[in-house]
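> forwarded from #structure-qc
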């Protein structure tokens, strides 16, 4: 039962990311969050990163391909799909390109909130799709 509840919390995070729902993001991400997505981030930095992402990309959608939970950990295999049509990203003006970013994530849940996130995504593939590399 706890495993299913933890998976639901992670799915709620992805939905809040898609919708840029700052209220739900603040609710599911613990104040003591440490997120590892290239550089360690605290909760405020992680939420700001999501806001910055939304300034450049629209139609952000996550497809959860697989999700496994054991104890306080949830592992997810996801594909993020979005369009670079709103603002500059890493100095590149909006390209209008649709991109897909596969990723593996690992979230640690404590007291119904995400306290740790580790994101392993195909950043090089994303940069290639955008024409940056």
């Amino acid at each position: 039962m706890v495993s299913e509840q933890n998976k639901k919390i992670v799915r709620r995070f992805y939905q809040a990311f898609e919708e840029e729902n700052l209220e739900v993001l603040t609710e599911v991400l613990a104040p003591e969050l440490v997120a590892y997505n290239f550089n360690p981030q605290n909760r405020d930095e992680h939420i700001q990163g999501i806001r910055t992402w939304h300034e450049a990309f629209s139609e952000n959608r996550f497809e959860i391909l697989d999700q496994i939970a054991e104890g306080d950990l949830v592992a997810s295999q996801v594909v993020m799909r979005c369009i670079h049509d709103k603002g500059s990203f890493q100095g590149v003006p909006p390209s209008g390109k649709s991109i897909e970013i596969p990723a593996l994530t690992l979230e640690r849940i404590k007291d119904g909130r995400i306290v740790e996130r580790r994101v392993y995504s195909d950043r090089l593939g994303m940069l290639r799709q955008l024409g940056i590399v």
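QC bot note: The helical segments are 2-19, 22-28, 43-56, 123-130. The mean pLDDT is 96.
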